[in-house]
Amino acid sequence: MPMESKEKYFPERGIYFVDSSEDDTVLIAIDPRYTPENNAVQWFDTVKARLKKVANFMEVSPEKIIFQDEDGAIYNFESMNLEIFNEKVKDQIRGAKDYKTQEEMEEALRKSYEDRMSY
């Protein structure tokens, strides 16, 4: 699938639950971007920046983006809501709190990103 612009694939700002049966180190993507110049998806996961070269986009919708990287690993990005956070993410993050609203959760995850990026 040819990539015309990164905005077509990821919104300006977004937080995603990331799942990959081939890569058990992924969990969260904050503001992922597709960069056509290097044919890669890059994101921050609250700990470090990541970059994966894209071999093939398998599904692209507002709620979900699935791609295969050059090594054959499949990455599933699902727009994260509070229910997904509580069911799939919360227990995997040290010090994660109970958030009452989507906005509160997003603010806390973004703060971790902004704190790391201010070094």
What report would you give on this structure?
The protein has 119 residues and is an alpha+beta fold. It has one domain: Roll (PH-domain like). It is 20% helix and 35% strand. The chain has 2 helices and 6 strands. Strands 1-2-3-4-5-6 form a 6-stranded antiparallel β-barrel. A hairpin with a 4-residue loop joins strand 5 (64-69) and strand 6 (74-79). Residues 1-7 have low confidence and may be disordered.
Q: Could you list some keywords that capture this structure?
A:
119 residues; alpha+beta; 6-stranded antiparallel β-barrel; disordered N terminus
What's this model, at a glance?
The chain is an alpha+beta fold and 119 residues long. It is built from 2 helices and 6 strands; from the N terminus they run ββββββαα. The chain has a single domain (6-111), classed as PH-domain like.
Structural class: alpha+beta
The largest sheet is: 6 strands, antiparallel, barrel
Task: Domain count, please report it.
Answer: 1
Question: Mind telling me the CATH class?
Answer: Mainly Beta
Number of helices: 2
Beta-strand content: 35-45%
- The count of β-strands is 6
The CATH topology: PH-domain like
Approximately how much helix is present in the residues?
A: 10-25%
Radius of gyration: 14 Å
Would you spell out the secondary-structure blueprint of this structure?
Elements: E1 15-19, E2 28-35, E3 40-44, E4 49-60, E5 64-69, E6 74-79, H1 82-89, H2 102-117
Antiparallel strand pairs: 1-2, 1-6, 2-3, 3-4, 4-5, 5-6
